[in-house]
Amino acid sequence: MENPWRGEVALVVDGEPRTMRLTLASLAALEARLKSESLIELIERFETGSFRVRDLIALLVAGLNGGGWAVSEADFVARTIDGGPLAAAEAAARLLKLTFSVPGEEPGGDGPA
């Protein structure tokens, strides 16, 4: 089971729950893969909705690799995600949010309510 305090998010792939987590290594690989100038630029791409499907795939694969499942993008796209593209996008958004905020605290907020 995923641990939000560690920035972990679950994604069910081919009926099997997988844990995603963005580690420093997976973030560096993601930044290089998407040819991003900075981590802030990468995050803004997703926050503003200007990401592409290949960006989403790269983020999910980075999270899965960071969570301990060594999967390539080519292998990943050949698999089935429970809930389809919408579930994948929601999991990616949650992954970014948990990676860059404290659980229970909204990004930019003053702390837990």
Overall mean pLDDT: 88
By DSSP (H or I, 4+ residues per run), the number of helices equals: 5
β-strand number: 2
Strand content of the residues, in percent? Answer: 5-15%
- Global shape: globular
Question: First CA to last CA: what distance?
Answer: 25 Å
* Radius of gyration, in angstroms, nearest whole number: 13 Å
Largest sheet: 2 strands, antiparallel
**Approximate helicity band:** 40-55%
Question: What can you see in these coordinates?
Answer:
The chain has 113 residues and is mainly α. The protein has one domain (4-99). The chain is 48% helix and 9% strand. It has helices at residues 24-33, 39-47, 53-66, 73-77, 84-99; strands at residues 9-13, 16-20. The protein has a two-stranded antiparallel ribbon. A hairpin with a 2-residue loop joins strand 1 and strand 2. The longest helix is centred in the C-terminal third of the chain and has 16 residues, at 84-99. The two termini are 25 Å apart. 25% of the residues are buried. Mean pLDDT is 88; it is low at 107-113.
Task: List the SSEs and their pairings.
Elements: E1 9-13, E2 16-20, H1 24-33, H2 39-47, H3 53-66, H4 73-77, H5 84-99
Antiparallel strand pairs: 1-2
